[in-house]
Structure prediction request, 240 residues.
Amino acid sequence: MTGGMILFDKPQGWTSHDAAEAFRRMLPPGTKVGHCGALDPVATGLLVLLVGPCTRLQAMMQGLDKEYSGHIRLGVETDTGDITGKVLAEKPVPELSLGDLQKLMDGFLGKVDVPVPAYSAVKHKGRALYEYARKGQPVPEKRRVSRIDSWRALSYQAPDLEHSIRCSSGTYIRALAAEIGGRLGCGATMLTLRRDRVASLKLSDALTLSDAKDLSLKDLKAMLEGSLKHLQEVAVGPRK
Prediction:
């Protein structure tokens, strides 16, 4: 069948693989479906899925810039770097204004080098780091250089900071939350995360879970065919 692109608003609790598998079951047997950049189960928002022959663009599409919004909780450190993890420490949060936090976040703009979270799919000697962590084994330290184009403090109601960020692909927001907590001396963990944009692709154009359940195969095929021009523009730029 003709390939194409699906924009899906991934619900909390789903893995990116769960989303790909859900659409795979809706399509003819043997149809390939792959995602272009995983979202943690705790996160929600825009997941770009490629179907059929278009899965060949997967590696390239994974490298596109991303935009997120969400909340960071100050004063708490967890083993996973998000609120679902085991609490490792709780510390008092200093008195802070929204301006104080924005000034701190401005210091991350440009290229940043931060540790990769222990609970991540980054591999060491063929094993994902989370495999070491889940077995209680020492987790090899990995670092990643990311690019932060914009990081805004939207509101602050202690201990929770609402923020939005525009960054390069592969940026771990959990790691940035931990860095914020470290610089403040109180620790921090990611509370919520929502992906709002991938390059020019917007969450507002994505199918919700309810939308997807109501789709017939005919509707889905028509949507895939209609996505091809947009996919070409995102993947290789508009024709000149």
Summary: The chain has a mean pLDDT of 92. The two ends are 28 Å apart (CA to CA).
